[in-house]
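fyi for ur records
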Amino acid sequence: MAQLFFTQQLARFISAPEVATSARRLRDGLESAFALNPRLRGYVLDDQGCLRPNVAIFIDGRRCRDTRRLDDPLAPDSKVYVLQALSGG
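which gave:
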């Protein structure tokens, strides 16, 4: 099963557990996480269902290609990391 991981920066604001999913597409994998915690959706996706500009997702070390449809394929052993950008200086 693909594994979804959420960074500690995001987990500071909302419960973001590690999720194992049999989803074959990124959006479906994210929906598995949102089913566990619906509030997580608002931190990751905007009101149009697109990836927020301050969030990056990496699948097996590569950044997701389509931040709108989120249709990148997931392999059964994929590792998906959802990162919230940090700012400051």
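The mean pLDDT is 90. thats all i got for now
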